[in-house]
Specification:
It is built from 1 helix and 9 strands, in the order E-H-E-E-E-E-E-E-E-E. By secondary structure, it is mostly beta strands. It has one domain: Elongation Factor Tu (Ef-tu), domain 3. The strands form 2 sheets. A 6-stranded antiparallel β-barrel has the order 1-2-7-6-5-8. Strands 3-9 form a two-stranded antiparallel ribbon. The radius of gyration is 14 Å and the shape is globular.
């Protein structure tokens, strides 16, 4: 399944660009060692998320390859649940392996995403700009757009 999305600006805490003193290098960099100890190595990916806005009211993640419960990744944050799903991110002729990164809203305390957006992890992709239309390639039935 291949679905178009628009790259939009997020809260910028994943990358560390939000200047949040709790996460000077970003939340992904802070979480990475915890996920690695649980069996998921994020080192192939840029420690930031691509915020993918879909042309729908709601996008639902139906399947996942990793589900980590009650990850206590920061002393000032409560434990959170996370789901990850393998995908490919496509921009132009370039396709790179990635992950859908989904902190579960039921355990999240801040930085909520709109219901029609997903956060994606991918290797660094040069020359991206907000507003770029890209594609998400996932297994059939991995996501539902409503």
């Amino acid at each position: 399944m291949v679905v178009d999305f628009t790259l939009v600006q997020g809260h910028r805490v994943a990358s560390g660009l939000a200047n949040d003193k709790r996460f000077p290098k970003g939340t992904i960099a802070a979480q990475q060692p915890y996920f690695k100890s649980l069996g998921l190595d994020l080192s192939p990916f840029h420690f930031a998320t691509l915020n993918a806005k879909f042309n729908c009211d709601y996008v639902q993640l139906n399947t996942y390859h990793y589900y980590f419960k009650q990850v206590k990744w920061h002393q000032q944050m409560p434990a959170e649940d996370f789901k990850f799903c393998h995908c490919h991110v496509v921009v132009g002729e370039q396709s790179v392996p990635g992950l859908i990164y989904q902190p579960m809203p039921s355990t999240k305390t801040a930085h909520f995403q709109p219901k029609n957006q997903l956060e994606l992890l991918a290797p660094f992709i040069a020359n991206l700009q907000y507003g770029t239309v890209m594609q998400l390639e996932v297994a059939d039935f991995a996501i539902t757009l409503r």
